[in-house]
Design goal:
The protein has four helices and five strands, in the order αβααββαββ. It is an alpha+beta fold. The protein has a five-stranded antiparallel β-sheet, with helices on one face. A hairpin with a 3-residue loop joins β2 (93-99) and β3. α3 (59-77) runs antiparallel to α4 (131-138). The chain starts with a helix and ends in a 5-residue tail after the last strand.
């Protein structure tokens, strides 16, 4: 299947990454505050977690993607004072890291129902809007799905292939 420019950035909208949740070998998550220091906290959490899981070969790619997903969640998804407030017990943004034998998924949950939309990559002077292009470039696949049930918002995820550990 070749990809052309118009379809390259279409995320997988079928919902979850194509992995069996029951087969996950490691999982970790952390709640992030609705402020920009959360990006640094997310990177530190990711570094500690990947060190524990011994999956350092994709570390730089994963950290870059985590930074972009968390930044996007904070910029576009955290309601302002005038909008619907987030329930105090619910963290505004949550980062999940999940590992299978040869796959790693990072997923960021946020309270927005908005579809993740890549910005205009032709504008090289744009300060924002390129995050999803980076996610698409550095991960093996990515997608998003709306949350159901008592949780409102969505999850944006990115999948990374890992080297077999022989």
């Amino acid at each position: 299947m070749g990809t052309n420019g118009s379809t390259m950035l279409k995320p997988l909208r079928q919902g979850l990454p194509p992995l069996d949740p029951a087969a996950v070998s490691n999982a970790a998550s952390c709640a992030l505050p609705a402020r920009y220091e959360a990006v640094r906290e997310a990177r530190l959490f990711t570094r500690r977690t990947l060190d524990q899981w011994d999956v350092g070969e994709r570390f730089d790619d994963v950290c870059l993607v985590v930074s972009e997903l968390v930044t996007n969640a904070l910029r576009h998804a955290v309601p302002g004072e005038s909008e619907h407030p987030v329930a105090p017990q619910a963290p505004a943004v949550r980062l999940h890291l999940m590992r299978w034998t040869e796959r790693l998924v990072c997923a960021v949950r946020d309270p927005s129902h908005g579809t993740p939309v890549p910005g205009d990559s032709d504008d090289s002077s744009a300060e924002s809007g390129r995050g999803l292009f980076l996610v698409d470039s550095f991960s093996d696949s990515w997608g998003w799905h709306p949350l159901a049930g008592t949780l409102s918002g969505k999850v944006v995820w990115a999948l990374f292939r890992l080297q077999p550990t022989e």
